[in-house]
Amino acid sequence: MMEHELSKITDVTIFLNGSQITRNQTFQVEAGINYLKFTGLPTQIHPETISVIPDGHCTVLSATYRFVSEGQLPSRISELKSKLEKLLDQQSFQLGIQAICSEEEELVRANCRISEQNTSRNPVQDVRATTEYFRQRLTELCVEKLAQQKELTKLAEEIGQIESEIGTISYSQQMVEVDIELFCEVAGAHQLVLSYYMPDANWHPYYDVRAIDVESPVELQLKAFVQQNSGEDWSNVKLTLSTGDPILNGTVPKLEPWYIDYEQKSELYRSMADTTVSASFEEHSFPLRSKMVAREVLSGVEYTLETPATIPSATHQKSVDIQSYSLKAQFKHVAVSKLEQDVFLIAVVQGWEQINLLSGEANIFFEGKYVGKSYIDPQQIEEALELSLGRDKGVIVRRVKGKNYTSKSFIGSNIKTSREWEYSVRNSKSHTIQLMIEDQLPISTNKGIVVEADQLSGAQFDQKTGKLTWVLQLEPSQVVEMPIKYTVSYPKDAIVRLD
C-alpha cells in the first residue's frame, strides 16, 4: 500500500450538533489499480458517512474503515503497567492474609466451645481465664481484619486510577485509517477528497443588538459560539455554519387513521404551541457589514465565513461573527405601573421578516452601554420584533390611590364597591416621546358579579381581556393626569377580593 503524508482539512461545516469534515490529499499513482490510505483520522468518525471523491481520471473501487495504533506506546504506559503489577500482587497478598484471619477466627470460636465443655476441678477460674483469652484474641483479629479491609480499599482505588489512565493513553494512541482501492486511467498526481461526519462539534447563535439613540437604526449583529472537541485543531479552514441536522430521519412520515371520541373537559384545553412560522431570506437584506455569505439549502441556512478560520480542539467556546444588519426601528416607551414602577424603552424593529432570524439570546446595548439580555424567538413573533432597551428614568409614571379610592354602598341584595386610581405622567426628556401605558380592570367569571367602567380617561378598553391601553404623545416637560375608576357589584352574602 502506498504511503503518503497526512491529509489536510480544507473545509468544515458545523451543524447545530455535529460537523462534516472535508480533507484532501494528492497522491502519485500508477495507471491501473492502486492501494492508498488516509491516515491519522480521529476515532469519532461515523463510518457510514465516509465519502471519497476522486478527480476525473480515477474511480474509487472500495473504501474501508479501520482502527489502528499509531507508533509505539509511550513509556508512561510501561511505567503504569509495572506499578499496576505490584499493586495487584499487594492486593493478592492482603486478600490471602484476610482469608487466614477469617479461618483463625473460626478456629478460635470452635476452641472456645470445646473449652467450655472441658472444665477442670476449678470451673470458675478456668472459664474466666478461657473467656479472657478468647476475647483478647478475637479483638486482635477484628482489628487486624479492619486494617486489612482499609488497605484493600486503598489498593482498589489506586488500581482503578491506573487502569483508567492506561485506557485513556491507549485510546489516545488509536487512530482511524481509510483504505482506498483506486483505479486510474492515467499515471501521475491525482487528488482525492475525503469527507465524513463527526459528533463532537456544535454551534449556537446569539445576538448583539445596538441602538445608538432613538433617531438611528438598530444594528442587529448575528454571532455564533462555536465549539469542537475532535482531538485535532482545524487550522485555516473554510468554515460553514449550518442550521441543518444531518442525523434527522429523512423518511417521509405516514399518516395513520385518526379516531375521535368523547373526552373529559380538562383534556380539551391543550397547548397549541406547535405552529411553525418561517421567514424568507434575502442574502443582502439590510446589510451593515457581512462577515459570512449566507445561502438557503434544503436543510436550512448555511453561513460561510469569507476568510479562513481556525477552531482549536478545546472545551471552551469561540465566538464568530456571522452577519450584521441595519434595521429601521420605531421607539416607544411602555409602562405597566400596576406591576412595575419604572418605564421601559422599546425598539420596534421593522424588516426583521426579510432576514432569516434564528432563535437565540440577545445582548442589548443602548447609547454604548450594556442594558441587559433578551431572547429572540422568531416563531413567537406575531407582527413586530420588539426589543427592550432597558429602563428609562427620564420618563416618570406614578400610579397612586385616588382620594376616593374605595367606597361601598348597598342596593337591594347587592353590594357595590368602587376603586379609583390616579395616574401622573411626566416626560423629563428633551424630545417628544410616545408612551404606552397598560392597566386592567377585573373580569367577571360569574353572572352574579358585574364590573362597570366608570372613568377611563380615554383608555382603549378590551372587554375580553380587561386590558386598558393609553397611547400618549408627550412633549418635553409635559405632565398628564389620568384618573381611572370602576365599580364591582355582587351579592351581599358573597366575598369578592379586589385588592
Question: In brief, what are we looking at here?
Answer:
With 499 residues, the protein is an alpha+beta fold.
Care to describe what's here?
With 499 residues, the protein is α+β, with helices and mostly antiparallel strands. 19% of the residues lie in helices and 47% in strands. Strands 1, 2, 4, 7, 8, 9, 10, 11, 12, 13, 14, 17 and 18 form a 13-stranded mixed beta sheet that branches. Strands 19-16-15-22-25-24 form a 6-stranded mixed beta sheet, with no helix packed on it. α1 packs antiparallel against α2. The chain is flat, with a radius of gyration of 39 Å. The model is unreliable at 265-290 (pLDDT under 50).
% residues in beta strands: over 45%
The span between the termini is: 86 Å
Structural class designation:
alpha+beta
Number of strands: 26
Low-confidence stretches: 265-290
- CA-based gyration radius: 39 Å
Count of individual helical segments: 2
Q: Shape from CA axes?
A: flat
The SSE string, one letter per element, is EEEEEHHEEEEEEEEEEEEEEEEEEEEE
- Profile the largest sheet: 13 strands, mixed
Chain-averaged pLDDT: 82
Helix content estimate = 10-25%
